[in-house]
């Protein structure tokens, strides 16, 4: 055959012999192609099987539902003429344009990439888009056609099956779904044209499956011939192609075929479809079922289904994929789902209500408050049933046609057959408002009247100087139910980076709007007391639970004075209440709101009248729960901290406490502290069940009446695991260590077991799963694995154990290991004597190195005390506070009179060095059965919640007095020692490692690596950016690989640039030492690392002593108006220079800097506003390094630069011809300046010109290219530039030079400069820099090649060879570049 692929399908189809020959020839082509073994996955996961290109071609050929489909595949394969690249592209096309859209299921179809394969070219196909809201009507017909029975699973009937339908004695009741055979997503797409479906998808489907777009056009997708009635479990497996139906010899009769994995229902051996309605309704079309079966076989044979699912999930989690529901938008969902796993405990409704809605009620005794509320709920139910209220307001509400009434044993307007979920929002809101109003009015008329609003008075500032007369005029705040559908709730400024896609349907909101009819336009999480999610039904309850968890997390983050939260999930027929705290969640069993209306009304009424303390607010804080979002920044917050005994361990029996000191005869008076809640020193951003650490600075209030204050301390609050050693005990032991903060007092405030032990064993039903369509996340040991399995990878995981445990809606509590103690936490508050400064505010490299010396010494001292810190991180290593006269270089050299110490904080995860791991978990003395044992809370700030005791011989005996064993792998992922991460990965050849001193010392190294990369800012190279991204990854394999590269690759640390580039020698030295220890199979010696740090610190100190003005100091971000900018070596040099020069016409004064925003004082030059001064004086006053450059000039700087008005409001110059102009700074780096490795003669003489261009002109863009560190004056101006700044890195190729900022010399690799210029609309480029005859020349010529108008400032460039400079400028002119001096350019611009 000459070229059969060029023939049409029909001509080949008419010749049977040629048909068989064509298919056989294509199989031979696939066989040859298979030798290349090409994996076409875009994202490759370690535990995913490969997806080979040849398997896609072979499966589509073998399983085409028609002969025409086989001919189509064979023709397309042969048309590629055995070209490997074209065959690979063909397989990718079919994967992306056929298999992926079909597998999309409920998602929107996105536009696939077009193909360049000639045989597959096609025109657009138009298919009317269909809305899913039209499906309920078809469901009713399906119920009749199938007799209210699931078509596939055994004895499963719809929950609303009429009594007239005969059902077996044992049947399963579920809500049944209308399921599409050909996916509904084929008419639910997302493209540039609202009616255009991607041409390839429909044309390939028509050629391969023999089905045209006209068959399913518009509403035809909902034709009964394309619908089957199935339960939710069957629907999930059918849509995922986990099973398919094969036809038998009997009409409309099929057998069920499975993939290798199990499915979640029982099925009949023979599945028949018949019309039981006697209305002649069409049956499922066999052709559609044959196509579904063909796709299922392709997914089964190739493994493409699993890969496509992961691609969709990744798109959902990253926010790239547009989802129709809000439940799956957040990138946090996979982690939250993992946390929720076996952590949501279902409790019987009555015990839940008593335990969590009436926390003060005595167990086992009647509670008057519960009885009162139950009586009111019955009265409210009677009112809704009879509709005869006496109160005028209630009567008005009941007459509203949108308010539900209770008639015929049902709430009106609350029906699962509503067209859309949002149709339930208003009825529920109005019903809740009615119930709330009824409770308020009824309680006010009780024999003992109860004012619901008495506990919700408006916040009054505790500072009487600020409160003024508000104390006597405080009015109650309102709490009302609001509909917040499509009203995205806002976070406070400190959580500006949080994902803000949370949109609860209803909320119970605290507000001060006195007009109840007024409509609020914005809502804040700070003001939400209860969040409510509404669904049509609970068929996707796993997603609902995840959404509830996200709402709970948002409230617990925003409301720092709250210890637990309550949420509600609703459907048209059902209700659940959730109680979320720091270790887990309890939820009621499903409450049928129609069958149990009184219980439902009691729950809603109770939520509406609860006090702040009953809703979880901590009354140790002033105005707990009553500070509104708009008052947060203006209202003073105080915290009362008492003094508790400090035990060695927290036990749930008071008599087992081992105290470090005898109890005092009289406890000390509570300490009142004014908290700086506007500037948290630290606030954890964990997921849901974590320690919730918060750190403030707090000033002691000595006299609350006159509001006199004393010293400022550090206040820390966190939830500690109760069976860990007490953090306060460690501080007491480390009291003599200078780098450990001095503890003034500790208070034990609250305990989670106080809530949990109110639930008895017999009241617990089981665990609810995290998601209905649950996908186990990629192997993240901190999320997936039992803590004991992490310690010993040979063990099997208890999480999700069993053949189908993850597929169950509930898990019995007795499943899993016995005698496991439940995870509980205790709320602790600490007050420390010292203040400190975060590492992010470091001023210089020498300061960081001196602090490193103190940190390592502190870790050694801790180890000598028998304590391992185990949580060294960026936020736990602190610098000393700064005040007047503080100088980071003088501090590092020991010249300051008062010695300040760097600090190591947060001993919350510390443990005894001698403790050993164990596999035996003890029984609790006070069991809280409703919380999952051994909960994993993630590696971020977690210990995995392991519960272990000391191994004693062959037995395991709990021993309170002995050091308890613990899990050693703790900390924050970017900073954990590499050997611990490798153990966490379960590396086969990694022996057991115990968290010890050398791991903490290595963590200090990773903190410094992180600091250098994070603070590099715009100077960061691409390698640094990718390294920082890898360190911040949640994927443990990515972090491990990045750390291995840093340790083992010599060049990894040499490329560090940015403010702390001087640390790279120390980091390289440390990495070399780590490699040597690895080769010798020795552990890192902390004393040796300490000597290395001292050596490098002393080098920098000596360098500073030789030339103080040359040492860089970096201004940290201002955090508080009280903090002053420290004096620096540059300031000292300026003062010294000023003293030598004598009187002058300019001096220094303290002035508030408007650009710093918080009034931080800093030095500024003093001039009269109307006085003009020489520009060189301004430059010299800013930086003495510039003064040196000025003195080296061959002529006065005043002859080069014009006079400058120092008034900050003076107008910057720019061209007025409308063209966008960019300033191009070429390689102005230390390497090319005097003293550098490749110094250009007089290269520093261009600096005043460059400074003038940056300071006096208005640019649409400033672009700086470099292969090293920018000159400090240029760097500081780039940082402060009002113009947009882009940094272009070049010179990364080892074998090819890169002179031009546009590309390398061979034009093999282009930089981002062309794209940056074009994307910003730049038309003109002004070029200055070094060196004229190399990088400036190449950049200017390439600029003309890209057709940019180019201006070269001749006095802003210098060349390596001075005699060639004129020739170079002439060459640039010949290319069309304009050569001008700065004065000429300024004259044109003005």
The rough form would be described as: globular
The chain-level structural class is: alpha+beta
Helical stretch tally: 39
What's the Cα radius of gyration?
A: 36 Å
Overall pLDDT level = 75
Given as residue ranges, the uncertain stretches (5+ residues, pLDDT < 50) are 1-14, 106-124, 190-197, 316-331, 654-660, 771-820, 915-965, 1117-1210
Strand content: 15-25%
Distance between the termini: 76 Å
Biggest sheet architecture: 10 strands, mixed
Detailed description of the structure:
The protein is α+β, with helices and mostly antiparallel strands. Helices cover 32% and strands 15% of the residues. The protein contains 39 helices and 47 strands. The strands form 14 sheets. Strands 12, 15, 16, 17, 18, 19, 20, 21, 28 and 29 form a 10-stranded mixed β-sheet that branches. Strands 22, 23, 24, 25, 26, 27 and 30 form a 7-stranded antiparallel β-sheet that branches. The protein is globular, with a radius of gyration of 36 Å. The chain starts with 8 loop residues before the first helix and ends with a helix.
Report a brief summary of the structure:
The protein has 1390 residues and is an alpha+beta fold. Helices cover 32% and strands 15% of the residues. Strands 12, 15, 16, 17, 18, 19, 20, 21, 28 and 29 form a 10-stranded mixed sheet that branches. Strands 22, 23, 24, 25, 26, 27 and 30 form a 7-stranded antiparallel sheet that branches. A 6-stranded parallel sheet has the order 44-43-42-45-46-47, sandwiched between helices.
């Amino acid at each position: 055959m000459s070229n059969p692929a060029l023939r049409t399908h029909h001509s080949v189809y008419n010749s049977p012999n040629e048909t068989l020959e064509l298919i056989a020839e294509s199989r031979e082509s696939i066989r040859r192609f298979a030798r290349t073994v090409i994996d076409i996955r875009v994202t490759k996961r370690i535990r995913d099987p490969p997806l080979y290109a040849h398997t896609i071609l072979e499966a589509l050929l073998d399983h085409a539902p028609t002969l025409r489909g086989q001919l189509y595949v064979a023709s397309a394969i042969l048309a590629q003429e055995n070209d490997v690249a074209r065959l690979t592209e063909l397989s990718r096309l079919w994967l992306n344009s056929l298999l992926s859209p079909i597998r999309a299921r409920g998602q929107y179809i996105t536009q696939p990439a077009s193909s360049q394969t000639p045989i597959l070219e096609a025109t657009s196909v138009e298919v009317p888009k269909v809305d899913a809201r039209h499906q309920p009507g078809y469901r009713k017909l399906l119920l009749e056609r199938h007799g209210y029975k699931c078509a596939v699973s055994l004895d499963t009937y719809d929950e609303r099956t009429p009594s007239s339908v005969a059902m077996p004695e044992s049947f399963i009741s579920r809500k049944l779904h209308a399921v599409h055979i050909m996916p509904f997503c084929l008419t639910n797409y997302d493209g540039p044209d609202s009616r255009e479906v991607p041409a390839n998808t429909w044309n390939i489907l028509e050629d391969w499956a023999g089905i045209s777009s006209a068959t399913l056009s518009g509403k035809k997708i909902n034709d009964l011939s394309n619908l089957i009635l199935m339960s939710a479990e069957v629907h999930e497996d059918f849509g995922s192609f986990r099973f398919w139906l094969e036809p038998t010899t009997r009409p409309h009769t099929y057998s069920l075929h499975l993939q290798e994995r199990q499915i979640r229902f029982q099925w009949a051996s023979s599945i028949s479809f018949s019309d039981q309605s006697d209305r002649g309704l069409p049956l499922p079309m066999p052709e559609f079922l044959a196509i579904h079966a063909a796709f299922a076989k392709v997914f089964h044979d190739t493994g493409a289904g699993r890969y496509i699912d992961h691609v969709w999930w990744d798109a959902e989690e990253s926010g790239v994929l547009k989802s129709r529901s809000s439940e799956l938008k957040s990138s946090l969902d996979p982690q939250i789902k993992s946390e929720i796993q076996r952590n949501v405990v279902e409790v019987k409704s009555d015990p839940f209500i008593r335990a969590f809605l009436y926390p003060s009620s005595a167990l086992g005794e009647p509670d008057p408050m519960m009885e009162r509320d139950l009586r009111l709920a019955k009265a409210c139910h009677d009112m809704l049933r009879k509709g005869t209220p006496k109160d005028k307001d209630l009567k008005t509400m009941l007459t509203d046609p949108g308010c539900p009434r209770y008639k015929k044993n049902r709430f009106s307007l609350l029906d699962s057959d509503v067209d859309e979920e949002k149709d339930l929002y208003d009825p529920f809101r109005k019903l809740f408002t009615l119930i709330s109003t009824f409770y308020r009015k009824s309680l006010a008329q009780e024999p003992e009247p109860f004012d619901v609003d008495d506990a919700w008075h408006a916040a009054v500032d505790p500072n009487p100087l600020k409160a003024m007369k508000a104390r006597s005029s405080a009015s109650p705040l309102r709490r009302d139910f609001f509909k917040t559908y499509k009203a995205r709730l806002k976070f406070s400024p400190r959580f500006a980076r949080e994902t803000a896609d949370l949109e609860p349907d209803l909320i119970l909101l605290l507000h001060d709007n006195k007009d109840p009819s007024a409509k609020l336009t914005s809502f804040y999480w700070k003001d939400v007391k209860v969040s409510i999610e509404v669904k049509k039904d609970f068929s996707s309850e796993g997603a609902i639970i995840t959404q509830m968890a996200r709402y709970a997390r948002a409230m617990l983050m925003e409301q720092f004075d709250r210890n637990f939260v309550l949420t509600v999930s609703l459907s048209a027929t059902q209700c659940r209440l959730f109680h979320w705290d720091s270790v887990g969640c309890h939820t009621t069993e499903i409450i049928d709101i129609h069958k149990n209306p009184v219980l439902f009304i009691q729950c809603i009424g109770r939520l509406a009248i609860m006090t702040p303390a009953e809703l979880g607010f901590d009354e140790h804080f002033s105005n707990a729960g009553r500070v509104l979002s708009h008052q947060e920044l203006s209202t003073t917050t105080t915290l009362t901290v008492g003094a508790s005994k400090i035990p060695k361990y927290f036990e749930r029996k008071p008599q087992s406490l081992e105290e470090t000191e005898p109890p005092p005869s009289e406890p000390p008076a509570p300490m009142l502290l004014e908290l700086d809640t506007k500037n948290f020193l630290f606030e954890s951003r964990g997921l849901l069940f974590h320690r919730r650490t918060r750190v403030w600075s707090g000033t002691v209030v000595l006299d609350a009446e006159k509001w006199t204050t004393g010293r400022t301390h550090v206040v820390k609050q966190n939830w500690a695991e109760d069976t860990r050693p007490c953090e306060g005990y460690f501080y007491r032991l480390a009291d003599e260590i200078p780098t450990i903060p001095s503890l003034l007092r500790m208070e034990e405030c609250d305990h989670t077991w106080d809530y949990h032990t109110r639930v008895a064993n017999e009241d617990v039903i089981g665990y609810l799963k995290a998601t209905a369509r649950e996908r186990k996340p990629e192997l993240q040991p901190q999320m997936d694995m039992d803590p004991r399995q992490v310690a010993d990878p040979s063990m099997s995981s208890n999480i999700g154990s069993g053949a189908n445990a993850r597929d169950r809606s509930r898990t019995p509590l007795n499943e899993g290991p016995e005698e496991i103690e439940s995870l509980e936490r205790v709320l602790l508050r600490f007050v420390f004597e010292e203040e400190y400064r975060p590492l992010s505010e470091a001023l210089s490299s020498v300061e960081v190195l001196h602090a490193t010396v103190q940190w390592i010494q502190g870790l050694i001292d801790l180890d000598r005390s028998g304590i391992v810190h185990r949580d060294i991180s960026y936020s736990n290593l602190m610098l000393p506070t700064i005040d007047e006269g503080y100088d980071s270089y003088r501090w590092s050299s020991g010249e300051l009179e008062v010695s300040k110490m760097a600090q190591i904080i947060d001993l919350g995860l510390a443990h005894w060095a001698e403790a050993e791991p164990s596999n035996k978990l003890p029984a609790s003395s006070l069991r809280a059965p409703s919380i999952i044992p051994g909960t994993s809370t993630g590696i971020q700030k977690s210990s995995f919640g392991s519960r272990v005791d000391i191994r004693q011989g062959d037995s395991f005996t709990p021993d309170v007095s002995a050091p308890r064993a613990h899990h050693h792998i703790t900390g924050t992922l970017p900073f954990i020692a590499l050997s611990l991460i490798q153990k966490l990965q379960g590396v086969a050849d990694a022996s057991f490692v115990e968290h010890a001193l050398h791991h903490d010392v290595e963590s200090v190294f990773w903190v410094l690596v992180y600091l250098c990369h994070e603070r590099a800012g715009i100077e960061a190279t691409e390698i640094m950016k990718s390294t920082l991204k890898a360190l911040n990854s949640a994927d443990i394999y990515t972090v491990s690989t990045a750390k291995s590269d840093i340790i083992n690759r010599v060049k990894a640390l040499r490329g560090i640039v940015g403010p702390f580039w001087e640390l790279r020698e120390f980091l390289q030295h440390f990495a070399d030492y780590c490699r040597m220890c690895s080769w010798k199979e020795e552990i890192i010696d902390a004393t040796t690392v300490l000597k290395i740090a001292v050596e490098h610190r002393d080098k920098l100190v000596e360098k500073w002593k030789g030339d103080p003005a040359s040492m860089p100091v970096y201004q940290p971000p201002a955090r508080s108006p009280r903090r002053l900018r420290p004096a620096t070596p540059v300031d000292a040099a300026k003062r010294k220079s000023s003293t030598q020069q004598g009187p002058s016409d300019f001096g220094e004064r303290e002035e508030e800097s408007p650009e710093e925003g918080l009034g931080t004082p800093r030095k500024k030059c003093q001039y009269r506003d109307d006085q003009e001064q020489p520009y060189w004086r301004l430059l010299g006053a800013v930086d003495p390094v510039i003064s040196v450059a000025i003195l080296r000039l061959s002529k006065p700087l005043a002859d080069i630069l014009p006079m400058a008005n120092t008034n900050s409001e003076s107008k910057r110059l720019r061209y007025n011809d409308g063209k966008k102009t960019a300033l191009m700074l070429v390689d102005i780096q230390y390497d090319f300046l005097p003293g550098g490795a490749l110094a250009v003669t007089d290269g520093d003489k261009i600096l005043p010109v460059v400074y003038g261009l940056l300071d006096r002109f208005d640019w649409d863009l400033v672009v700086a290219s470099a292969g090293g560190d920018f000159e400090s004056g240029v760097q500081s101006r780039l940082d402060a530039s009002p113009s947009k700044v882009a940094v272009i890195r070049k010179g990364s190729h080892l074998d090819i030079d890169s002179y031009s900022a546009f590309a390398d010399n061979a034009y093999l690799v282009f930089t981002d400069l062309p794209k940056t210029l074009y994307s910003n609309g730049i038309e003109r480029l002004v070029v200055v820099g070094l060196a004229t005859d190399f990088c400036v020349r190449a950049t200017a010529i390439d600029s003309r090649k890209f057709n940019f108008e180019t201006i070269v400032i001749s006095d802003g460039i210098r060349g390596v060879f001075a005699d060639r400079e004129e020739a170079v400028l002439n060459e640039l002119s010949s290319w069309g570049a304009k050569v001008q001096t700065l004065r000429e350019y300024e004259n044109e611009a003005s």
